[in-house]
Specification:
The protein is of the alpha+beta class. It has five helices and 29 strands.
């Protein structure tokens, strides 16, 4: 990585990002710079937009007799009296010339540090997962025919935004849909009694897991929907509690792990009957191949965390000193505990994790941190392995817990292709850490990276005060989609939420999905295509 003087702009990294020639370290350096430099965001956005413009020009092959026609025309002087726009190939030639000149001007703009208008971001990094191609099945005859995979009722292309939307009238169950923002396609998921608060797309893009609130009962419902045939499966009901909104897909999309806090809502609630005493928290998983849901733990204090690249699930146990274990779903094993690590979120490459540390306590069956609760970023553990002692660096580089007061709970996410991280819904129990008394705030979303971490300047997207932060999702290219629940207009009115998509530079107001609808429905949470 080239050393850079303070205040300088990484023009060569901007140029290299457009051709995909950045190393991982250079991409992180560029992303860190873009978080705080509006002018470089504008330059990169305009350059990327021009590439899309030029790539859209159609290539028109020259006629085989062009040379002869030009010579003949010159000799006879036929073209001299014809307007340029009617000469053979004139329009295409002029269009190509203008595009070439425009591209040259933009190159000068980058080199000369000019500032074109903001548009978007560079092309996102490719995902590690792709949708399987057509399967092959044997027919009764000796010949073998290709049987294509059925068309999905709705699908998301790479990086495309999909989101849940709830609409309905007052005092009625809402109608839930899943929508592709790029194509306008929509898939009905039936009726639910409350708004969605979390969502996760399987790595192959075939299944959507989501959590909805169950009316005013203080409970949630966990669902999965198959995006090919629109089949919806209710996986269970859970009491609302911190750290229970994690929906973890295995890398191959075969399993989805989740957490349920047992609750008894009666035989008419539609919830599957609880198999444990009320208030006990356990990890479950859903097998997409068999359609079975299985309770993994029976301790009453276990949470599903995330999968490792080897398909093993990390499960966390809440206790005064919490711990986690690596558990294979289809084999017996005696895993070693990872002490002091709670609810780790593994990066897609398996090299690092974000996790919680601190002292926990239970109140009415709900676990949260009572002392020193801080989100951490692990060191790279490729050499030692995830089972070795984890060394963490606090995600916040400017927070100092006082007397053990820190975060009681919160949520984090990252786009590991870009190194971008997000933190929200942090319930800070200590004294304010800013002069104006507003930091940290549960109403803010903090955006940073795995190299620059989090601090006060990166903890406001301009959404504080507009409602409660429900969910945050990061795209592979680092865009941020934030679901903000709005205050109710009156008793019995349907819930409303806005879904705001903010570019990777985190500047400006962002784009609000469905902003022309009044009153707004409940839009979000969002997911991005694999």
């Amino acid at each position: 990585m080239t050393s850079r003087q303070p205040g300088s702009h990484p023009d060569e990294l901007i140029s290299a990002s457009l051709s995909g020639d950045l190393t991982d370290a250079e991409r992180l350096e560029l992303d860190d710079h873009l978080l705080t430099c509006r002018s470089c965001c504008d330059t990169l956005a305009a350059f990327a937009d021009e590439r899309r413009l030029i790539s859209g020009l159609h290539h028109v092959p020259a006629p085989s007799d062009l040379s002869a026609r030009v010579r003949s025309g010159i000799e006879a002087g036929r073209l001299g009296s014809i307007p340029w726009w009617r000469r053979p190939g004139g329009v295409v030639a002029v269009g190509a010339t203008l595009a070439t000149v425009t591209a040259a001007l933009l190159a000068i703009a980058v080199i000369g540090n000019l500032r074109p208008a903001p548009v978007g971001h560079a092309t996102p990094s490719p995902s590690a997962y792709v949708v399987p191609s057509a399967s092959v099945a044997a027919s009764p005859s000796p010949s073998v025919e290709a049987t294509p995979t059925p068309e999905r009722a709705i699908a998301l292309g790479p990086g495309e935004l999909g989101y849940l939307s709830l609409s309905g009238a007052s005092l009625e169950a809402g109608h839930l849909t899943f929508n592709n923002d790029a194509t306008g396609a929509s898939l009905s998921l039936g009726t639910v009694s409350g708004p969605p608060i979390a969502a996760a797309l399987s790595p192959d893009g075939h299944w959507l897991a989501y959590i909805t609130q169950k009316g005013e009962t203080g409970a949630n419902e966990v669902w999965v929907a198959h995006l090919t045939d629109a089949a919806v499966v209710r996986l269970g009901c859970s009491a609302e509690a911190p750290f229970t909104d994690r929906l973890a897909w295995s890398p191959d999309g075969s399993y989805m792990a989740y957490t349920l806090v047992s609750i008894d809502l009666g035989p008419t609630s539609g919830c599957p009957p609880s198999v444990t005493a009320v208030g006990r928290t356990d990890a479950w998983f859903f097998d997409v191949g068999t359609g079975e849901r299985t309770k993994i733990t029976g301790d009453g204090n276990a949470f599903a965390a995330s999968f490792l690249p080897n398909e093993h699930l990390l499960i966390s146990w809440a206790a005064e000193t919490p711990w986690s274990e690596e558990v294979p779903l289809k084999a017996d094993a005696t895993p070693a505990p990872i002490n002091g690590v709670f609810l780790p979120l593994i990066s897609s490459d398996g090299n690092r994790a974000m996790f919680w540390s601190g002292t926990m306590a239970s109140s009415n069956g709900q676990w949260q941190f009572s002392r020193g609760g801080m989100p951490q970023l692990s060191d790279d553990f490729r050499s030692a392995g995830p089972a070795s002692p984890w060394i963490g660096t606090p995600l916040f580089k400017d927070l100092t817990p006082v007397g053990g007061e820190a975060f009681a709970y919160g949520s984090f996410e990252w786009a590991t292709a870009t190194g971008r991280i997000a933190f929200w819904n942090g319930a800070w129990t200590g004294p304010p850490q800013s002069a104006d008394g507003t930091y940290p705030s549960q109403q803010d979303v903090c955006i940073g990276s795995s190299t620059s971490l989090l601090s006060a300047p990166a903890c406001s997207l301009g959404l504080a005060g507009k409602g409660r932060i429900v969910d945050v999702t990061l795209s592979p290219s680092g865009d941020v989609a934030v679901t903000v629940g709005l205050p109710s207009a009156g008793i019995g009115d349907p819930p409303s939420a806005t879904l705001t998509v903010i570019g990777s530079c985190c500047g400006g107001e962002g784009r609000v999905i469905g902003s022309d609808v009044q009153p707004p429905p409940w839009d979000g949470p969002a997911v991005f295509g694999p």
